[in-house]
Amino acid sequence: MTAVHTLSGRGQRRAEARTGGLLALPAMVYFGVFWLLPFLSAAYLSFTRYDLAGTPEWVGLENYRRMLEDPGFWNSAQVTALYTAGSVLPAIVLALAIAVPLARPGRRNGVLRGLIMIPAVMPLVATSVVWRIIYADGGPANTVLGLAGLGPVSWLTDERLAIWSLVVMVTWKHLGLFVIILTAGLQALPRGVYEAAALDGAGPVRAFFSITLPLLRRTLLFVLIIAVVGSTQAFVPAFLLTGGGPAGATEVLPYYMWSNAFGFERMGYASAMAMVLLVMLVVLSLAQFRFLRGGDDE
């Protein structure tokens, strides 16, 4: 009888494994076709000279050596770093400041949470077009400055302002998503800890820094990683608003890769830059993970 039950249990587990495999098959096919295969193709092309017309010619590490001597690559890397620093940390701080009061229960807060998500669900192309109108010479931004007695500003053609104009647009675009994620994290925190802290005489400020931030660390880690990854994919704003200009002031790495791949037909060189950007993202994400999770397992 025991042997029969054992065989029956094994057969059931095998059937469940087959069912699970069939259910996971569409996701595995999608991952293989649209993620793994393009990654392997880009990794191979990064070691070749390929102009989209002929056959890829193996050149080894030539593309990577070329990057070290390319002023355009270093300029785009610097612009990307500036864009990331300007669009990530301020957005997270602002999102946390908004999420704290919105995490409180109430119908009004629920409505506000819905409204603040509107920019996040707008297509990025549509958002870029709207902000191009806002930044136009006679657009709302310069109209407001005119009411304040200030002259018009060339938001997208001034080398000093162009990158920050993109930062403002992207912060506005992603702020709602960060607020919703942080609000969910705040609402999941145990209330008993705050009640105990209040009995011990801890005020709101001390409770925020001593309780809220440490308990919210994992949520902040998630928001930080998706913010950094998103900031390095800033092709659409740079393409639609500034075209990488003026004078390369907004030529972020994705735009520089695109211009090399399709503008100059240097697909191998562009693929090498994509691999370098991927490695940079992995290292940066691991560093963030280690920093923000430090002490969680102790």
TrEMBL record:
Q: Where in the cell is it found?
A: Cell membrane
Report how it sits in the membrane: Multi-pass membrane protein
UniProt KW Nucleotidyltransferase keyword? no
CDD domains attached to this UniProt entry? TM_PBP2
- What are the recorded Gene Ontology BP terms? transmembrane transport
Q: Which InterPro entries match?
A: ABC_transporter_permease, MetI-like, MetI-like_sf
Q: Transmembrane region positions?
A: 21-47, 81-103, 115-135, 161-182, 220-247, 267-287
- Which Gene Ontology CC terms are recorded? plasma membrane
Q: What is its main location?
A: membrane
- Signal peptide bounds: none
Q: Which family does it belong to?
A: Belongs to the binding-protein-dependent transport system permease family.
PANTHER family on file: ABC TRANSPORTER PERMEASE PROTEIN, INNER MEMBRANE ABC TRANSPORTER PERMEASE PROTEIN YCJO
Its name, as the record gives it, is: Multiple sugar transport system permease protein
